[in-house]
């Protein structure tokens, strides 16, 4: 094992369009194990500026062919098949067709959500805008920021989009960009899969809607749902967080239990998959360790190979380097991780 890595952002998996991912140079289209994130491609090759840029990253928004990085000074920096920067950005959603951006109030101009075409360069004017007239809850939740007017002391910011700080609707990177949402749901969190959505309600309830052909809605059938429907199997269990893969769904209860359902073709549910030979393995993890499973063709699981897994396996890179994982951002074919010095 070499010298321990410094804390910060790490990346692994697919980078076939040159999106910033790790420090390894060369023409390889994927990284099979974690490496420190380097943003030299957006900092004109200056290593000092590149390190400063990585330090300033507070969130990552990956799509398949490009990645958006949100910085402490409210910039959105795009790397890969889409390039460019936007200032005054509080959050973003990235897809192969559009980039949605939540932009802050500037000199009396109301905050707004913008939709941009995911072209090679962000140029001209956005395709669509929606002005936000009621943003008190957003200002309260996002904090007062640092003395420079940027993000607060934490290097990580929670996601705001696709919810917006105005009740009654949410946004999607697909047209139409705005969608109605019943205020009585009291949404605390909303996440989008490839063809479905999950909503965490005010009392810890979970609602799903959209396409259900792969079981991703959790209603015991494969029919689509046009409106949010509560997942009956979870009634009486207060959930703390929800997440969505392309065609599978996850939630974590306030007691720390993980529930997962939907498509399992590559073992992404951590259940035996027909496509993967079953293996006996006991998993015993500690806080701050990273475990991955599912489809691994591009090294996005971080185990220095391209194997798929239907059971959780620890990513040894972080424990070997005495790093404590605090955040994981899963792209379609790659993974970004934020880690700090190990904690007892």
TrEMBL record:
Top-level taxon in the UniProt lineage: Eukaryota
Chain coiled-coil ranges: none
PROSITE patterns: RCC1_2, RCC1_3
The RCC repeat ranges on this chain: 204-255, 288-341
Name the record gives this protein: RCC1 domain-containing protein 1 isoform X2
Primary gene name: RCCD1
